Each structure stands twice: as C-alpha cells, then as structure tokens.
C-alpha cells in the first residue's frame, strides 16, 4: 500500500503544478483587461478635455471677430461725430459711442478669460495625452510579455502532461479513480499529506485512532473534514514529500473554488 500511496502522491505533485499553471494562465486576460479599461478611461478624459479646448478656441475666435467688427463700427461713428452739426444728434451718437465702448471693454475682458482657459486646457490636454501614450506603451509591452508568458506556460503544461501520463500509469486503477473523483470536486487536490496528526490540505486535526492507522499504510483513508485521501508523510529517508500541497497560494485557491461551488 505504501508504494501505491507514494505513486499517488507523485501524481498529485505534477497535477498541482498543472493546476497552478492553468489557473495562472486563466488570470492573465483579466490583468490585461484591467489595463485596457484604464486606457479607455484615460482616453475618455483626454478626448473630453480636447473637445472642450476646441470649443473654447472656436468661441474665442468668434468673439474676437465680433470685437473687431465693433471696433470698426466705433471708428466710423467717431468719424461721423466730427461731421454732425445738430446738437441733439451729436449727443445721441456720443451716447451710442460710450455704450459701445463699455460693451467692447466687457468683451475684451471675456476674451482675456477665454485665453486663460485656453492656456489651462492646453496644458491639461498635453498632460493627458502624454499619460495616455505612456499607458498605451505599458499596455503594449505588457501584452507582449503576456503572450510570451502564455507560450511558456503552454510549453510547460505540455511537458507536465507527458510526465503526468507516466506517473499516472504507475498508480493502482482503483486508487486512481478515487483520487480523480475527489480531485474534481476539491480544486485539483485529491490527496493530502498528514503531519503531526493534521491534514495538511485543510489543517484539521485527525482523530488519534485514524492517525495510528494512517501510520501503518495498510488501507486508504480519507480526511473527515475535506474528504481527501490521506497519506502520512513518514519520517527520515523514506519520508514522502509533496511540495505544492502546503503552498499557501494553492490553499487559497482551494478555498475560493470551494466557495464558488457552494
Ligand atoms: Zn483535510
């Protein structure tokens, strides 16, 4: 039985690696998606400010043209004023001129404010454009890195699949069926090592009687808490190792996947 269990643990080791890599590969598009969203937001901010800038620039031009026209009129009126003999007409035109002057100076103030806004908007647009381009660069390089990473992961999974087939062929069929059944439902981990009376997958303390039986390696037992096949890790040279199993990252995944299935 010990040899059967040892072969099973060997299989679990390679399965855990495959499981971890596949999960990592799954998460890659999510990360890229986040960057893509950030980029979209940056683009929106830039586009909005740019549109506002164009709008203010256009209004400024219109206002400046109007002011030019008014100034031109004013000159004409002033010229006419010199030619008027009638006092009443003279006073009326003079009043008109004064009113136009006030309106023009108000327009000038508005134009100045617009110029200030154009300056501020121009700076903003330049900054937003720069940060958008930087983000775009980041996205592109991240994308390239991710594509490379996917190639590497696929290659590694392919290699591990081959190794898996080799290890799998050594596992006793009935034990294998039980293992696969548990593994399907327990996020890729079907067998758990036992250390100091605890299941290392779920950290549950095992009843002493069960622990004693496990140390004899004469039957297949499962964890009363998580349901995984239990293998006492043993001691010294014959100790059984299962590196990936107690890794924190994998444990977290197990919990997360358990939550999903509930
Ligand atoms: Zn357990």
- The total tally of domains equals 2
Number of strands: 4
Shape: rod-shaped
The description of the largest β-sheet is: 4 strands, mixed
Output the helix-strand order: HHHEEHEEH
Brief digest:
This protein is mainly alpha-helical.
What does this structure look like?
It is built from five helices and four strands. With 262 residues, the chain is mainly α. It has two domains: 28-141; 172-261, Orthogonal Bundle (Helix Hairpins). It has a four-stranded mixed beta sheet. The longest helix has 82 residues, at 2-83. The radius of gyration is 39 Å and the shape is rod-shaped. It starts with a helix and ends with a helix. Mean pLDDT is 90; it is low at 246-262. Residues 192, 199, 201-202, 204, 223, 225-226, 228 line the site of zinc ion.
Observed structural traits:
four-stranded mixed β-sheet, 76% helix, rod-shaped, 5% strand, binds zinc ion, 2 domains, disordered C terminus, mainly alpha, Helix Hairpins, 5 helices, 262 residues
Layout of SSEs?
Elements: H1 2-83, H2 87-168, H3 173-185, E1 191-195, E2 198-199, H4 208-214, E3 221-222, E4 229-232, H5 248-261
Parallel strand pairs: 1-4
Antiparallel strand pairs: 1-2, 3-4
Bound molecules: zinc ion.
The site of zinc ion has 9 residues, from loops.
